[in-house]
Design brief:
Chain A: Pfam families: MTS (PF05175). The complex is a heterodimer of chains A (229) and B (123). By secondary structure, chain A is of the alpha/beta class. Chain A has 9 helices and 7 strands, in the order αααβαβαββααβαββα. Chain A has a single domain, classed as 3-Layer(aba) Sandwich (Rossmann fold). Chain A has helices at residues 12-15, 23-34, 36-42, 56-65, 78-90, 128-137, 152-164, 181-192, 219-228; strands spanning 46-50, 70-75, 95-99, 114-119, 165-176, 194-204, 207-216. In chain A, helix 2 (23-34) runs parallel beside helix 4. Chain B has a single domain (2-121), classed as N-terminal domain of TfIIb (Single Sheet), CATH 2.20.25. Chain B is globular. The chains are: A alpha/beta (229), B alpha+beta (123). At the A-B interface, helix 5 and strand 3 of A face strand 1, helix 2 and strand 5 of B.
Chain lengths: 229, 123
Amino acid sequence: MIPTPDLSHLSHKDYEHVYEPAEDTFILLDALEEDADCLKQVQPRICLEIGSGSGCVSCFVGAILGHTSLYLCTDINPHAARCTVATGVRNQIRLDAIIAPFAHPLLDRLKGSVDLLLFNPPYVPTVEEEAANAQHHADIAGAWAGGEDGMQVTNELLGLVEHLLSPTGQFYLVAVKQNDVPSIQRRMFDEHGLRSEVVLERRAGVEHLFVIKFFRGCPPTKQVIEFCH
Amino acid sequence: MVRLITHNLLACHVKGCNTNNFPLQFQDVQIELREADFNADFLRGFLPKIEWNALVDAARQLGDTSLPQEQPTMIDDDFLKALHHVLLEIHVEEGAMVCPNCKHVYPIASGIPNMLLAEHEIG
């Protein structure tokens, strides 16, 4: 049992600007914990979380893997980046926060290098304009407003995943039923050749949450995946 | 915490700025040294991902000359210790990083680099 990271240093004031970990965060933690042995086996050197918010998820990964990896965390919200760093300090996991959209300033150098990619996106279906505005203002609404079918922000990252993943790299994505999980999986295979599986799904209140794991279909990955099951 | 390990991975991403956009040059920086846990496996695993010249130049800009100009072929403990210090223990807390090509300035505040761009600079 890996304990949930200590977030007691964050206050209500922080949560006015930064997403407070909720069911969607916890399903991702549970999925990562379930895959912990497999993740250790891959020996990630570079972990990258997009939209790290409070820093809870990357800290949890740090607790699984220890000081064997670099933990890069991007967020467009400066307040979130500061919370990410503070959560790392609190939990004695070194998190390297960068205020940036997606992985944009890292794309050149991280081509084919990311061993573990994590994204709990703004997945709530909203009107398109609301999602665009929320990203523009880089504040709390940007953590949930996902535009039509909730995929507006996720779609932008999906196009970058294949570029970023290392040969044994794995990408964990949180989604809800309205995002049409089978269609995401099909599209990632058809357009980018990435295989995937639903690691966990659960209902939490009105939301039906999923964690999908994507990986390359090449033999080294296959061995790793077989090791996991 | 802009550590040199992070600096070694960041490039300018202004629209149309595709050549000579790495490494970013430090400007008016304040640094702090903070100890980090030494892990030889991590360093060995990370070594192939490093742009060596960029790392050596960045370290020298910050006053650290412990790394050899050429990446050594023999990896011994002394080398790994020097590499550990340069990559993971030198923190740039304040200042900026400037693109060598388009001169875009990315500020660093409280150890966090701000890589956001204005609307017209986004590719």
